[in-house]
């Protein structure tokens, strides 16, 4: 086992030894979903006040709505959520490159087979944080796959301060 795998098993033993919430219901108790970035500096439960069983937390590079759509449909249509909080953050890596840059790196480091497998994949970087939030909120609000009665709001989490702010 690797060091990381050993850490997983040891920390899980500690966690499981006092675990008492195995009877939580499958649907999220507070009927909402959070789309946020996979950035390791973000602890969604602590930063956004989410207790175990409260909400679905969907994480991907950039807190991207298009990438999260499949999970959001499952969350709403099969598990009853009625609200989406889309939360991007300051200092996001998705602000630092363009699609062409990512494709060039893949070509250089992984070769032609990887480029072919990507098939022109849009990495969905964004040059402006607040506009990225607005664009993703608009995408969700305009999506036929997101019902009109689902509330969608956009936020920025500041990694420097731990604060969130609404984006209109």
From TrEMBL:
Cofactor note (record): Binds 1 zinc ion per subunit.
Enzyme class: lyase
Pfam families xrefs: Pro_CA (PF00484)
Catalytic activity, as annotated: hydrogencarbonate + H(+) = CO2 + H2O
Keywords on record: Lyase, Metal-binding, Zinc
Keyword tRNA processing: no
Biological function: Reversible hydration of carbon dioxide.
PANTHER family: CARBON DISULFIDE HYDROLASE, CARBONIC ANHYDRASE
Protein name, entry field: Carbonic anhydrase
Lineage, highest ranks first: Eukaryota, Fungi, Dikarya, Ascomycota, Pezizomycotina
């Amino acid at each position: 086992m690797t060091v990381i795998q050993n850490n997983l098993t040891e920390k899980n033993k500690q966690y499981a030894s006092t675990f008492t919430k195995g009877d939580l219901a499958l649907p999220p108790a507070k009927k909402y979903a959070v789309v946020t970035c996979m950035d390791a500096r973000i602890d969604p439960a602590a930063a956004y006040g989410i207790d175990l069983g409260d909400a679905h937390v969907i994480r991907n590079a950039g807190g991207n709505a298009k990438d999260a759509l499949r999970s959001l449909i499952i969350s709403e249509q099969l598990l009853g959520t009625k609200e989406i909080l889309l939360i991007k953050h300051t200092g996001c890596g998705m602000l630092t490159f363009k699609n062409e840059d990512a494709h060039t790196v893949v070509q250089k480091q992984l070769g032609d087979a990887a480029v072919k497998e990507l098939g022109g994949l849009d990495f969905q970087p964004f040059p402006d944080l607040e506009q990225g939030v607005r664009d993703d909120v608009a995408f969700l609000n305009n999506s036929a796959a997101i019902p009109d009665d689902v509330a969608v709001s956009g936020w920025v989490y500041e990694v420097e301060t731990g604060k969130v702010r609404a984006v209109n």
